[in-house]
DNA sequence: CTGAAAGCGCTTACAG
DNA sequence: CTGAAAGCGCTTACAG
């Protein structure tokens, strides 16, 4: 033992408290230790711990001092047992997660949600739903009241969890506008339709004539991006210029670009519904010997990290993911407190780089 | 009348309706409900819940049935209060996390750890340590016994958490060999030195004469990769061919490559200590008009997702991250159970693609 | 094998 | 404003 790290503990001989610390396990100070040291009842200590209402200044001071010198930390289990609140929130990925983990957006979301929650002293519990067993576990976990709410990152329609969440029994907020049975869940999303319009208008303003789109209409946000593209192009948005992919991956982008190139060889611009898709398209264009943006302009969506690492760097639509995360947490906390809270739509922004 | 809280509430002059809202929350069945239905004591129910030892077949059956029909789930708080186990583990990122979140390896690690833990019904709590406030929160959280152990992803030397972890009071396992004060923490890592040798040997076998290295010796693993490179090259590994970066990022890779190119214009191969670094180097090489691999061969390290998305795809050293994660969880669980467990080193593998 | 009972460490009406 | 007391839902010796 190098140097006394916890003076309060070290000074304390074990005989006094109840339980007599039979185990060598960490036996932190309890609320009773604090109460004794402060010369008050444990009810009073509890009151200062929970907002210091109805506590005299003298008692408040004594308790605060005692908390500091004992190094007391509340035992969450004991507290939860009576309050029925866990001070934890589940971050649920209900899609085959490999796909989502590949998405740079996901990391930003996870990081920002964790940070926002930490400010409220709430823990983020990461839960994956890739197998049926996992799905079952998450359901039991959420139903069992182990968490106060859930941040739903991407919903799979068949998921039984959806029903619970949509019913409002367990507070929840989705990332991106949900479709199908989960439509009743409040959400936070970027203005996908308008963002897509911004990009399409930009491409048109650049003088591009045959503007293709790599869409991904599996999710509502993707449908809206396609809609925005059509809004601007009108009847010029011919079917042969649109390829719908099954996911937002790099590989899907490359495959879609290949298809576009073979179906419409004279294409001179392409709007990809995500940066990852755009990166894949870029790779395919290079393989085909097309110069970007000279021969074909490429526009992405997200402004994720990858947009700065492609060659050339991507012109894209910025989605304010940090704010999406912060707002998701804000909405969820309101819901947990039974305060009114509704879905939020965040504005997007055109970011000019070199690809278009 | 059990459900008559409406009447009770109406009759009572309570200033805050908060209590009422809380009471209306989900009230699942308790162990007593199960016991009653099964016709046994709650001690017996508890026994079947915890391994079914010393329980008669008849009682076992009755309890299992009762659990099923009531839909009973154990209340973790109540259980933790007595067992002192939380069934949760913290996944701590103790570096400025933006940097790590940028790393594709990180996602793999996080996903695989979550999955491995879920199989044991243990939750993963994600904790970031970017600000002092957060650092403090993590420390209190871990010391407060809120988690049974910690998965330490990257340790910052000044972190007070390290002392707790290194002392073994709280079970912990690090990802990658730790250096400095945390050296006492068990770890799981790839065989960095040997992996670097494999790559360097490959470059030599390709006939490359002036092989540079983009190193990152901030972490022990990075030092070992540099060592492996030197092991193979001997005195041919001249100082001017090695650039040490401050992190594993794309931008750092590009900057390092620029420096190598200006200091040693005749360089014909470069071994980057990570794929992200290699991707940055690739971008810089293209900017400088050098062809890869014709003019300059590029080797990476990790075999992360990005290795397949660069142009050309990266020849790299595969690090078995899925196994690293699985082993980290395995070691941690053993430590938690007070079983003997020691650090593990996992083999690497050369993956041939087009960049070298 | 099983039940009764003693807590685990907290919060929260309730009555001063 | 404050203390005494009644739980919250579980586990675990301890006696049968």
UniProtKB/TrEMBL annotation, chains A, B:
<dbReference type="InterPro" id="IPR028082">
    <property type="entry name" value="Peripla_BP_I"/>
</dbReference>
<dbReference type="InterPro" id="IPR010982">
    <property type="entry name" value="Lambda_DNA-bd_dom_sf"/>
</dbReference>
<feature type="domain" description="HTH lacI-type">
    <location>
        <begin position="29"/>
        <end position="83"/>
    </location>
</feature>
<keyword id="KW-0804">Transcription</keyword>
<feature type="region of interest" description="Disordered">
    <location>
        <begin position="1"/>
        <end position="28"/>
    </location>
</feature>
<feature type="compositionally biased region" description="Basic residues">
    <location>
        <begin position="15"/>
        <end position="26"/>
    </location>
</feature>
<dbReference type="GO" id="GO:0003700">
    <property type="term" value="F:DNA-binding transcription factor activity"/>
</dbReference>
<dbReference type="InterPro" id="IPR000843">
    <property type="entry name" value="HTH_LacI"/>
</dbReference>
<keyword id="KW-0238">DNA-binding</keyword>
<dbReference type="Pfam" id="PF13377">
    <property type="entry name" value="Peripla_BP_3"/>
</dbReference>
<dbReference type="InterPro" id="IPR001387">
    <property type="entry name" value="Cro/C1-type_HTH"/>
</dbReference>
<protein>
    <submittedName>
        <fullName>LacI family transcriptional regulator</fullName>
    </submittedName>
</protein>
<feature type="domain" description="HTH cro/C1-type">
    <location>
        <begin position="30"/>
        <end position="66"/>
    </location>
</feature>
<dbReference type="GO" id="GO:0000976">
    <property type="term" value="F:transcription cis-regulatory region binding"/>
</dbReference>
<keyword id="KW-0805">Transcription regulation</keyword>
<dbReference type="Pfam" id="PF00356">
    <property type="entry name" value="LacI"/>
</dbReference>
<dbReference type="InterPro" id="IPR046335">
    <property type="entry name" value="LacI/GalR-like_sensor"/>
</dbReference>
């Amino acid at each position: 033992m190098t140097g006394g790290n916890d003076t309060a503990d070290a000074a304390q001989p074990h005989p006094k408290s109840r339980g007599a610390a039979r185990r060598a396990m960490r036996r932190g100070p309890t609320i009773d230790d604090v109460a004794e040291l402060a010369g008050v009842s444990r009810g009073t200590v509890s009151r200062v711990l929970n907002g210091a209402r109805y506590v005299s200044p003298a008692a408040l001071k004594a308790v605060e001092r005692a908390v500091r010198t004992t190094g007391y930390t509340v035992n969450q289990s004991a507290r939860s047992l009576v309050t029925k609140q866990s001070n934890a929130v589940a971050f649920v990925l209900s899609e085959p997660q490999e796909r989502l983990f590949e998405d740079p957006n996901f990391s930003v979301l996870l990081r920002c949600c964790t940070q926002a929650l930490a400010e409220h002293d709430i823990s983020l519990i990461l839960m994956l739903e890739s197998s049926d067993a996992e799905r079952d576990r998450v359901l039991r976990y959420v139903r069992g009241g182990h968490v106060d709410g859930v941040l739903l990152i991407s919903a799979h329609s068949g998921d039984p969890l959806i029903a619970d969440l949509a019913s409002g029994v367990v507070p929840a907020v989705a990332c991106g506008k949900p479709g199908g049975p989960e439509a009743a869940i409040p959400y936070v999303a970027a203005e996908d339709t308008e963002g897509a319009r911004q990009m399409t208008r930009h491409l048109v303003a650049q003088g591009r004539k045959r503007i293709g789109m790599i869409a991904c209409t599996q999710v509502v946000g993707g449908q809206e991006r396609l809609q925005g593209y059509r809004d601007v192009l009108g009847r010029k948005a011919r079917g042969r210029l649109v390829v719908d992919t099954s996911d937002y991956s790099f590989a899907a982008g490359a495959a879609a670009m290949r298809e576009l190139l073979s179906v419409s060889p004279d294409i001179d611009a392409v709007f990809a519904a995500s940066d990852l898709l755009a990166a894949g398209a870029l790779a395919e264009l290079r393989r085909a010997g097309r110069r970007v943006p000279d021969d074909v302009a490429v526009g992405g969506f997200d402004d994720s990290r990858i947009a700065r690492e492609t060659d050339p760097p991507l012109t894209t639509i910025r989605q304010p993911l940090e704010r999406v995360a912060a707002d998701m947490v804000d909405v969820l906390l309101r819901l947990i407190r039974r305060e009114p809270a509704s879905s939020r739509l965040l504005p997007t922004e055109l970011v000019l780089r070199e690809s278009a």
